[in-house]
Write a structure and sequence with these properties.
The chain is an alpha/beta fold. It has an 8-stranded mixed beta sheet, sandwiched between helices. Strand 1 (45-48) and strand 2 form a beta hairpin. It has one domain (4-314): 3-Layer(aba) Sandwich (Rossmann fold). Helix 10 (216-243) packs across helix 11. It is 42% helix and 14% strand. The protein has helices at 4-16, 57-64, 79-95, 111-118, 124-130, 137-150, 162-171, 181-184, 196-208, 216-243, 264-271, 317-330; strands at 45-48, 53-55, 69-74, 99-107, 155-159, 248-254, 277-284, 303-307.
């Protein structure tokens, strides 16, 4: 496996001496070193899901170069996932420069603020505030956005507005009818087809977490809010392809929205079945830092990438509960009443 330090070195050389290609750094040996345990939280290892064959980054990029949409699922905030995203972005750009970066991490109503930053009209801190960037923007997504700016590539916000998602979660998709025509026109039309597999997966996840006591109607509203996000992301991706014929989409999203080819991926394929959509999904290493048993996991994506587990955040259940309560208390209040 190519060591991440080699790619970091290449990044330095790009800035100082013009390193021409990631492919020039340690091409050989990655396949033969596939069984070595991961050494750091930055390190990843890629396999082709169908065959279990380890993949080098250059080999992966060659495989992905013809895809219309490359979706990289992530565990938000994992440094290995975000480093790999940046490496794939650069490797694909070298082979197919007509590239568009689409992001779950910005909502569509914040696109104007993002555009002002892309055009050099605002600074990064201004953009973070005006575009409501995620708290981990600088650590996780800054390198990808800056690469796009340096190469004059579009960066497109794809998520549904946060307040709309929260209100649909409370009231269901009927809330969409209360929006102003301008806002309503930016969002997809329900009913959202989804699938039984995705619904069952979502409800099982919610029931297994802190929301197990919710009544069934509230759970179904939450599922509709999830679908709103998926179908909004899919619609923005399809519009981007219409506006930039022949371009390749690189889409970053939480892995729940893409693994098993469900969520956003399924929404794209329902509306544009001829598109070639490739999914990369993360899995955590076993206790020895190597690939776990892949039985039952190979359908999660076309390619899987191995990550070391993040540190346990809480070992005290009461402190975890207090932390969750504080986060909910800190969330800004919303008014789901119809606008005048």
């Amino acid at each position: 496996m190519t060591k991440p330090g080699h790619y970091l070195l290449c990044s330095v050389l790009l800035a100082v001496a013009g390193c021409s290609s990631l492919d020039a750094i340690h091409r050989e040996g990655a396949r033969h070193d596939a069984s070595r345990p991961l050494q750091t939280l930055y390190e990843t290892r890629i396999i082709e899901a169908a065959t279990g064959t380890p993949q080098t980054l250059p080999a992966l990029a060659e495989t992905l170069v013809e895809a219309d949409v490359v979706v990289i699922g992530e565990y938000h905030g994992h440094p290995g996932a975000h480093l790999l995203q940046s490496q794939i972005q650069q490797a694909l750009y070298q082979r197919r420069p007509d590239q568009i970066l689409t992001l779950e991490q910005f909502a569509i109503d914040r696109q104007p603020a993002l555009d002002r930053y892309l055009a050099g009209e605002t600074g990064e801190r201004e953009m973070i505030e005006e575009a409501a960037a995620w708290a981990n923007y600088q650590a996780s997504y800054r390198p990808l956005v800056e690469f796009a700016i340096a190469n004059d590539l579009p960066v497109i916000a794809t998520n549904a507005p946060r307040e709309v998602v929260r209100c649909v979660g409370r009231q269901g998709t009927g809330y969409l009818d209360t929006l102003t025509p301008d806002v309503r026109a930016t969002l997809p039309e329900p009913p959202f087809p989804g699938s039984t597999a995705y619904r069952d997966k979502f409800l099982a996840t919610m029931a297994g977490g802190s929301h197990g006591s919710r009544d069934q109607s509230r759970l179904m509203n939450s599922y509709q809010a999830q679908l709103l996000r998926d179908y909004t992301m899919a619609s923005r991706i399809l519009v981007a392809l219409e506006q930039h014929p022949g371009a390749q989409i690189l889409h970053l999203t939480g892995t729940f929205h893409s693994e098993d080819h469900l969520g956003t991926v399924q929404a794209i394929q329902q509306q544009a079945p001829d598109l070639d959509v490739v999914v990369l999904s993360p899995i955590f290493s076993d206790s020895e830092g190597a690939f776990p048993d892949l039985a039952g996991q190979r359908d999660r994506g076309d390619f899987l990438y191995l990550l070391s587990p993040l540190p346990v955040q809480f070992r005290d259940a009461q402190r975890q509960l207090r932390d969750l309560q504080r986060r909910f208390a800190d969330a800004p209040p919303i008014d789901c009443q119809p606008e005048p």
